[in-house]
Each structure stands twice: as C-alpha cells, then as structure tokens.
Amino acid sequence: MHHDAAAALKLTALSKHFGRPAVDRLDLTVRQGELYALLGPNGAGKTTTLRMVAGLLAPDSGSVEIFGIDLAANPAAAKQKIAYLPDDPMLYAKLKPTEYLEFVAGLWGIEAADAAPRAHRLLEWLDLSRHAHELTEGFSRGMKQKLALAGALIHAPQLLILDEPLTGLDAAAARQVKDLLLEHVRAGGTVVLTTHILEVAERLAQRIGIIEHGRLIAQGTLDELRRQTDGGTLEDVFLQLTGQS
C-alpha cells in the first residue's frame, strides 16, 4: 500500500491536565508544506499544545510525531526539524542581532561560514539590517519579535511553530513577518501558528483548526468550515462553531 510522506505533525490523543484538562485527547494532523492556523478562545489549550509539540512540556498521555519521528522516543532527532517561537521570546539584551543569530546557529551546530550569509539574508528580509550592530536591549517589541523569528529560522527548520507571531507588531512589521512565513511555505517548509487575529488566518492559512476545551471541534479550509456553518467570514464561522454567536 502506498503511503504519503509522513505528516509534518501528527498529534494522537494528546492530553495534558493542570488540575483540569488543558488539552483533551487531541488528534491533529498537519501536512507537509502547508500553513496551518490553530484558532480557539482564550484558555482553549493552544499554547499548551504548541509547548508539547516543541518538547517543552511532557504530555500526560498521547503522542507527538514530527515527520514520522516520535518526539518522546527520539527527542533530539525530532527537535532538529522544528523551530518554536513562543509569544514572549527571550533575547539576550547585550547582544547585537548578528551576534544573537551567530549564537543561535552555534547551538544548532551550524558552521559560522554557513550561518553568516543566512543571518544576513534574514536580517535583510525582515528589514533589520540597519540595526544589525545595535544592542537588542534598545529594540522595540516589534523589532525583538522579528529578530526572534530570524533566530527561529536560522537552522532552516522544516516545521515552524509560532504562538501568536503578530502580537504587538505594527502593520509594516506584520507584513514582513507574513511574507517571510509564506516564503518558508513556498520553499517547502511547514508552518503551524496560533493567532487571535482571524483575518490573518483567513488570508494566510491553507487549513484552519478550531480548538475548544482542549479538543479539535472543526478543521478544514475556510470554504469547508463555511459549509459546516451558516457561512460568512471566518469570524462568523468561528463564533458559530465555538458557540459564541
């Protein structure tokens, strides 16, 4: 029997309790080469899910597979394929962007000769080149967010996992980040992001998953989700599915 290439991300019955279930037997598959947006009300379990995918939080039960590699059984190999950007990324205040990217590349074992041109290209793309030699402690929130994204991309991860990547960005910065994510997908990469800015999901995502109380309640293209509801904008569809309309 012919099997498609392994899914970029496959969650099976994934569960995590903090006194109550934050993620509740979640099944979710993200295909290779797609941009998948995970939406849900606050407290639905989105961040907890991403932290388990990134290997920062151990599930109580269930499994995470990244390109067919079981994260629990083989964490080093699975993590090599992903980059995770939390919603409050940690930067080192006393480093310049070039030094920060060199440092992150070094953590991934990337040769300086390979890292330097890649860092240069990312800083260009994100319009940070003119700040390349300034200390990051003086950066605005948006600049920090963009630099953290560059850090996430420096080892050319196949799967990029982003928690609210556009929070606090102005329109120009948000556009640069969106373009970079689309570029990553065009080049064959896979992106999973959470966002509460529904218009971003509507415009960028090939598929959308809606999670509530730690469970996937609907997923599909925007058109497929419209057919499960009375249609309308993604906001209309989202509010109907989560029982808020």
Short description:
This protein is an alpha/beta fold and 245 residues long. It is 36% helix and 24% strand.
Q: What would the keywords be for this entry?
A:
6-stranded mixed β-sheet; 36% helix; 245 residues; alpha/beta; 4-stranded antiparallel β-sheet
Total DSSP helices: 9
Helix-and-strand structural type: alpha/beta
Count every beta strand, where a strand is a DSSP E run of 2 or more residues.
Answer: 10
Could you give the order of strands across the largest sheet? 6-7-8-3-9-10
Global morphology: globular
Characterization of the model:
The chain has 245 residues and is of the alpha/beta class. Helices cover 36% and strands 24% of the residues. It contains 9 helices and 10 strands. The protein has a 6-stranded mixed beta sheet, with helices on both faces. β4 and β5 (69-70) form a beta hairpin. α3 runs parallel beside α5. The longest helix has 16 residues, at 171-186. The chain is globular, with a radius of gyration of 18 Å.
